[in-house]
Write a structure and sequence with these properties.
Layout lengths: L2 H24 L5 H10 L9 H29 L1
Helix pairs in contact: 1-3
Length: 80
């Protein structure tokens, strides 16, 4: 596998994750970091997680990262 291709895709995934986390913060949604930190501090933290947080973390966030990888691959194919 071409290292340049992996690098371009990796950069786009990183930028996608940063953007997704900014969006989650603005929409007051939990991130994986929030959940791991909250659960490590208190086992009652699970009661603070809403259904929309679960939808965000299980469905929308992974789709956004997958889309970022797709865009990264498309950019690589156009450039190289």
């Amino acid at each position: 596998m071409n290292v340049t291709r992996l690098y371009v895709i990796g950069i786009l995934i990183l930028l996608g994750a940063i953007l997704a986390n900014i969006i989650a913060s603005k929409l007051n949604l939990k991130s994986w970091y929030d959940i791991f930190l909250g659960v490590s501090e208190s086992s009652n933290y699970w009661s603070q997680i809403r259904i929309i947080d679960g939808i965000w973390l299980i469905l929308i966030y992974p789709l956004s990262l997958g889309f970022s990888a797709y865009i990264g691959n498309t950019i690589y194919q156009k450039l190289f």
